[in-house]
TrEMBL record:
It comes from Methanolobus vulcani. PANTHER family: GDP-MANNOSE 4,6 DEHYDRATASE, GDP-MANNOSE 4,6-DEHYDRATASE. Its EC number is 4.2.1.47. The gene is gmd. This is GDP-mannose 4,6-dehydratase. GO terms for molecular function: GDP-mannose 4,6-dehydratase activity; NADP+ binding. Catalyzes the conversion of GDP-D-mannose to GDP-4-dehydro-6-deoxy-D-mannose. Belongs to the NAD(P)-dependent epimerase/dehydratase family. GDP-mannose 4,6-dehydratase subfamily. SUPFAM superfamilies: NAD(P)-binding Rossmann-fold domains. Residues 6-310 form the NAD(P)-binding domain. The keyword NADP applies.
Amino acid sequence: MSKNALITGISGQDGSYLAELLLDKGYNVYGILRRLSSPNTSRIDHIINSIELIQGDITDQSSLNEAMRVSDPDEVYNLAAQSFVGTSWNQPVHTADVTGIGVVRVLEAVKHLAPSAHMYQASSSEMFGKVQETPQTENTKFYPRSPYGFSKVFGYWACVNYRESYDMHISNGILFNHESPRRGIEFVTRKITDGVARIKYGLSNELRLGNLDARRDWGFAGDYVDAMWRMVQQEKPDDYVIATGETHSVQELVEFAFSRAGLDWEKYVVVDPKFVRPAEVQLLLGDATKAKNVLGWEPKVKFKELVEMMVDADLEKLKKSK
Ligand code: NDP
Ligand code: GDR
């Protein structure tokens, strides 16, 4: 018999890739979609007839409870979040409510209405924040540097606590940055690849960025949703770092993306203090050895291939729209 999976955040980057993966595996896929004044289904329009969308919001307990009743899930993937670190300083209370307390609301709904379901929590390398050690592992101390980061730490510990208090099957994936052509436009990778395409087609003549020295461990979202699924299939719940084990600076990303389109980045990139954050996470580099050994997971797409994929997709998109 097919399993039922419920995804919060199904309209986001990861939600869309995860829904595709679960459909391929024969799951009945349910997703929680919030009401907005403009359509927010562009990433899932191509599979919309194969999934069941339930209107709800992670700040609304009754809608989460109803989603559990309707979907009767074997697996719950909690991906919903205010996920943009920059915005978390402008909307700290909202971020804490959605990204932090939202996790507790999902845990409560699972505990009461789907207690035997296996649950995945989208935890983040932003929890490591200020560098304590590199590479970062499951045992590295957290030191969050933003309202987003401290909200994710809260969510992480809420999951550990419910796992230990109620013997629930809950796993935290501590995922490092992962990107794709479906990445939101404000995140630095997509901002750069979209900017490159605009400059290439004469729609823009500059790209304004913040800290070019920050370093990240960037992987491909399609690979990372497979790791989520693998965690949920384990006999025992646990927490895993998911990363490529490579780190690159924003500047390296800029250089590589511009050169992919045959452009000289120095003619176009302007550093704008507006995009520099009040507190920065300067260096992220993950060690996913545990995921490799226990889950049999390894990233397939590495940095250069990822940037090429994203630049090419943005060039193609603009070419079509022209
Ligand atoms: P996105 O920002 O692309 O997607 C976030 C999703 O959450 C969207 O579907 C959004 O809906 C939904 N959402 C936001 N607020 C609410 C709300 N109040 N109620 C219900 N749904 C809501 O993020 P990603 O797909 O990149 O990330 C998925 C998860 O993984 C997030 O929790 C993120 O914090 C975490 N994460 C991401 C990493 C990455 O590098 N991508 C790394 C580590 C963790 P809408 O479309 O309506 O806005
Ligand atoms: P991050 O991703 O904060 O790591 O969070 P983002 O792409 O926003 O920033 C990465 C780094 O680039 C620097 N940077 C800029 N960032 C943006 N957005 N815009 C700019 O103009 C710019 N210039 C330099 C940033 O300062 C930062 O150091 C992402 C999100 O997906 C989180 O939800 C997730 O948990 C973490 O990755 C892991």
